[in-house]
Structure formats: structure tokens, C-alpha cells
Design goal:
Length: 185
């Protein structure tokens, strides 16, 4: 089992409001160079999405549950079919019925992740990602870095994050952005 974090990030490591859905003044930066560079299986998840589980925080899950069920392309079908765990203290099991294969995470976040026998893929969900980073549970990062500097907003790695060694397993241009994959060394 591996914990895989996938994120859109800026050159200065910001992950705040990439699509503009939070309405922040600098939001929507991932689309500045066009939507075609960020659509489909941009993070090369493939079978990992089919066999693993998506772990989403409440806000990311709520956004995705409004977007993905209405899409019909091949990658959207995979997203809709994927198993989904929702880390939330406010949603109910009835709420998660809005998006197929979603269920509330039971118990402690870190314990639930460690108990998984399949890969856990986390996207968006800044609070969840930061907790996993702080607990040193992330095995892999798949990042799509957009050539934008924001100078403000949440960073992928919070202040005081534990020291970790990773190796670059893949790097390639995707239009104006760069896809990188880092594995725990």
C-alpha cells in the first residue's frame, strides 16, 4: 500500500484554489494556459485509480461530487467508479450517496489510512494532505506544476513539515506545465 498525493502546484509551491472554485482573488491559476493541459488522467493514475481508493476532504469531495458525475469521458468514468473515502465531521452517509462509491471515513484519519490494503490517492484536500505529511505517511507525490508564482496561499508543504528524501522518478512537460513524480527514497 502506498499513499500518493496528487496536486496542482505553482512554481512557488502554492496549492490554494487552483480551479477558482473557492473564489479567492488569485484562484483559477491552473487554467491560465488553457484547460487542455489539465484534463484527463494528467497524473498518470491508470489502474491505481481502479484498484486503489480516493481519499478526499469534505470541501474537495463536495466540489468533485458536483462535477464528476455529470462528465462522460473515459477518465470521468474511472473517477466515478473509483472507491472514495471522505474525511468529514459534518457530512452524513446520506450526503455521500450523491457520488457513487463514496463513504465516510470511520475513526481516525491516520489510522484509517494505515489500515488500507490498497493504494490511497489524495487530491486537493489541503488539510488531509498536511496531516499525512506531518505524520510522514506520504510515499509518492505526483505534481503538475503550473508556471505561475502567487506569493500567497497554502503551500504543499506546511511550515515545520518533517524532513523527507524523495527521488524524481519522472518529469515531463505537459504544455506549459511540468508533470513530476517523486517516490520516497
Amino acid at each position: 500500500m502506498s499513499v500518493i498525493v496528487i496536486e496542482f502546484t505553482t512554481l512557488d509551491g502554492r496549492i490554494t484554489d487552483p480551479d477558482g472554485s473557492d473564489g479567492t482573488p488569485l484562484g483559477g491559476w491552473m487554467f491560465r494556459h488553457g484547460r487542455e493541459h489539465v484534463s484527463g488522467d494528467k497524473f498518470r493514475l491508470g489502474r491505481t485509480l481502479d484498484e486503489g481508493v480516493l481519499l478526499l476532504g469534505r470541501r474537495t469531495w463536495q466540489l468533485f461530487s458536483r462535477l464528476w458525475p455529470n462528465r462522460t469521458d473515459e477518465f470521468s468514468a474511472r473517477m466515478n467508479a473509483a472507491a472514495k473515502l471522505v474525511a468529514s465531521r459534518t457530512l452524513t452517509a446520506a450526503d455521500t450517496a450523491a457520488w457513487a462509491n463514496s463513504r465516510l471515513l470511520e475513526g481516525d484519519l491516520l489510522g484509517a489510512v494505515q489500515e488500507q490494503d490498497r493504494d490511497v490517492v489524495v487530491t486537493g484536500s489541503t488539510g488531509v494532505v498536511h496531516r499525512l505529511i506531518e505524520a510522514d505517511l506520504v510515499d509518492e507525490y505526483r505534481l503538475l506544476t503550473v508556471p505561475v508564482v502567487l506569493g500567497t496561499g497554502a503551500r504543499l508543504f506546511p511550515e515545520g513539515a518533517p524532513v523527507g528524501d524523495f527521488r524524481c522518478a519522472q518529469a515531463e512537460p505537459v504544455g506549459p506545465a511540468c508533470y513530476t513524480r517523486y517516490l520516497r527514497a
